[in-house]
Amino acid sequence: MSWAPLSSAGYRVITPDYRGAGYSSRPPTGYTKKVLAIDLHTLLTEHVGVKTPVHIVGHDIGGMVAHADANLFPNAVASLVFGECPLPGASIYDEYKHAPGLWHFNFHSVPDLPELLVSGHEKQYLKHFHDRLAQNPAAFTGEDLDFYTTLYSVLGAMRAAFNVYRAFEEDKADNLRWLEEKGKVKVRAMVLSGDGTFHVLGAEKMAREVDEDVVVGVVERSGHYIAEENPGGFVEKVLGFIKQYIGSRCRLHGPGYKAVLRGRQCPALYS
């Protein structure tokens, strides 16, 4: 999707690839969401030079990273949007992690075998998820699929992607420990889902288990890939939530999908 509507609304948009994804490096270890959140915080504060709190928006794995970031660095997070993920540590994760529809959770966690079987078939493997999880598969063009295939065909890329899943049980332990030690996340949050996914059914329950101040958002005419399938609806929900935040917390001082949005007094991020 284009970030133009967000930048046109007065935000600075930063779209980092987390460790192992896209153009980022692919080290053999460090794929817990705690480590990925520390990576993100370090990037923002020490390299990009962001000194004020950011609005974090995270989808799927990015949602897990965003939630970890809000746990670890609450004073650096203005608000949180996350969703389309069964957050490890929440009850929905244990209920669904072995469900047939999430068979890839088990498959990706097996050592070495996924790399062996998927190698040379990255395009077909990625297309399977687009076709199965999207309500609007046409949202992904042939050029999109070729782009993702190129990135995931690089040596170590699929291993890094699978390692993100192999860390889920450690992520669960981290989230449960934070919940016991700190209580629910205090950062104002919105859990965001597509109206055509199973996530929408349990999103509110999941979020209320881990977040103290949370609202529910639903993007219409969308499956799992909400930003790609209905970019207008996605932007509308994100901006609407942030504007509510500005009104209640920033006293109208005006202004992250893997993006940090930063504007006027209150910056923002989608990861």
Give a written overview of the molecule.
By secondary structure, the chain is an alpha/beta fold. The chain has 13 helices and seven strands. The chain has a seven-stranded mixed β-sheet, with helices on both faces. Strand 2 (54-59), helix 3 and strand 3 (77-83) form a beta-alpha-beta unit. Helix 2 crosses helix 3 (61-72) and helix 7 (122-133) crosses helix 8. It is globular, with a radius of gyration of 18 Å.
Throw out a few tags for this protein.
single chain; about 270 residues; alpha/beta; 7-stranded mixed beta sheet; 7 strands
Low-confidence stretches: 248-271
Pairing-aware structural class of the strands and helices? alpha/beta
Straight-line distance between termini: 14 Å
Oligomer: single chain
How many strands?
7
Mean pLDDT: 90
**Would you list the SSEs in sequence order as H and E?**
HEHEHEHHHHHHHEHEHHEE
> What percent of residues are in strands?
5-15%
- The rounded Rg comes to 18 Å
Count of separate DSSP helical elements: 13
**Biggest sheet overview:** 7 strands, mixed
Fraction of helical residues: 40-55%
Q: Which strand order does the major sheet show?
A: 1-6-7-2-3-4-5
Would you spell out the secondary-structure blueprint of this structure?
Layout: H1 4-8, E1 12-14, H2 33-48, E2 54-59, H3 61-72, E3 77-83, H4 91-96, H5 103-109, H6 113-118, H7 122-133, H8 142-152, H9 157-166, H10 168-182, E4 189-194, H11 199-210, E5 214-219, H12 226-229, H13 231-249, E6 259-262, E7 268-270
Parallel strand pairs: 2-3, 2-7, 3-4, 4-5
Antiparallel strand pairs: 1-6, 6-7
Helix pairs in contact: 2-3, 7-8
